[in-house]
Amino acid sequence: MSLSFDKKISEVVQSIPPSAIRRFFDLANEMRGEVISLSIGEPDFVTPWRVREAGIYSLDQGNTHYSPNQGYIETRSAIAQYMKRRFHLTYDPVSEILVSVGGSEALDLAARALINPGDEVIIVEPCFVSYKATVLMAHGVPVIIETKQEDEFKLRPEDLEKAISKKTKYLILGYPCNPTGATMTRSDLERIVRVIERHPDLIVLSDELYAELTYGDDPFVSIATFPSMRDRTIIVNGFSKSFAMTGWRIGYATGPSQLIQAMNKVHQYCIMSSPTTAQYAVIEASLHGDKEVKEMRDEYNRRRRVIFDGLNKAGLTCFEPSGAFYAFPSVHECDMTSEEFCERLLKEKKVAIVPGNAFGACGEGYVRISYASSMENIREAMKRIKDFVADVRSE
């Protein structure tokens, strides 16, 4: 007699749907024939050789043991130098930096370290799929702010003000944005900061994983660079996207010592430490990886322009992305849901993309297209999407 575990599994876990990103990725893998996948945020670049070599050398030297819970001090020091050089932020490597297993673990650590049951967390959607899940699993209450294409998917200060209550614990700010490709300029952030300053207990969790991947005239600006924000902001960053190190599973959090140490307490019991080999590789990436990052960023920018031009030619309205490596075109005019569009595109033209509602309810009517793929794949995918849209409109 088999056991039924329906009543044994946490109600919170049962309430969280499986990732739609992975669903379409798996569907594409199951199909026969030549499927072009623009569904996963996985750089097609190989980790730069100098970084791989540092990891290999660490193994050759026998560095195969546990690291300190918070990460090797050499790794944290390298990250501190990187943060100061690239983003003009100064952190104490001893107490204000935590090395995590990817940026996703750092998001989870922050939720579990900060949230008491019933605390509210403001989430700006469309957004990375983990934000809401981490809050729910920490028994917090997500408070959703929906952004719109006509506002370039930016957080508006008046919407933030309305969302704040006495129960608000922190705001998750994810720019450059996955999935929209939106960014926030310094002037955009100034307006947000003025709202936050009126609420002295409000903490900001700034997901800056795509900070190195911005395009155009406006450079990336961290909200932590504002004088009033440095000591109430936790930055989550990592090496997966900009350094093409997804498989190394290495990220970090920076922020006020008291908050970082609370996160480290959760980390040391649940994960213990980050991969040793990856930490040695990160030292090289942090100190000497700028050239390779620029080369990858320049290539993403070329692909971005091809994607944006291709979507326009296909007749799909698209906000021009200015960061990360995603486009978020509207499919409203195709008279079908986001999931229907993606399912038919996959079956009929063998192109895998992700429905926009995977990133929040306001993402319905949009789809996410990743340009972290080869130019050859992107050009062919754009042809197939153009043909598909023409077919749909002729029905």
Structural summary, described in words:
With 395 residues, the protein is of the alpha/beta class. The chain folds into 2 domains: 11-46 and 292-393, Aspartate Aminotransferase, domain 1 (Alpha-Beta Complex); 49-288, Type I PLP-dependent aspartate aminotransferase-like (Major domain) (Aspartate Aminotransferase, domain 2, 3-Layer(aba) Sandwich), CATH 3.40.640.10. It has 13 helices and 12 strands. The strands form 3 sheets. Strands 2-8-7-6-5-3-4 form a 7-stranded mixed sheet, with helices on both faces. A 3-stranded antiparallel sheet has the order 9-12-11. Strand 3 (120-125), helix 6 (130-137) and strand 4 (141-146) form a beta-alpha-beta unit.
Task: Tell me which CATH architecture of the largest domain applies here.
Answer: 3-Layer(aba) Sandwich
- Given the helix and strand composition, which structural class is it? alpha/beta
Which geometry do the CA atoms define?
A: globular
Tally of distinct domains: 2
Oligomer: single chain
- Largest beta-sheet characterization: 7 strands, mixed
Rg over CA atoms: 21 Å
Uncertain segments are none
What is the CATH superfamily of the largest domain? Type I PLP-dependent aspartate aminotransferase-like (Major domain)
SSE pattern, N- to C-terminal? HHEHHEHEHEHEHEEEHHHEHEEEH
Under the CATH scheme, which class of the largest domain?
Alpha Beta
Distance between the termini: 52 Å
Helix content: 40-55%
Major sheet strand order: 2-8-7-6-5-3-4
**Total number of helices:** 13
CATH fold-level assignment of the largest domain:
Aspartate Aminotransferase, domain 2
**Residue-averaged pLDDT:** 95
Number of strands: 12
Please indicate the percent range of residues in DSSP E strands (runs of 2 or more): 5-15%
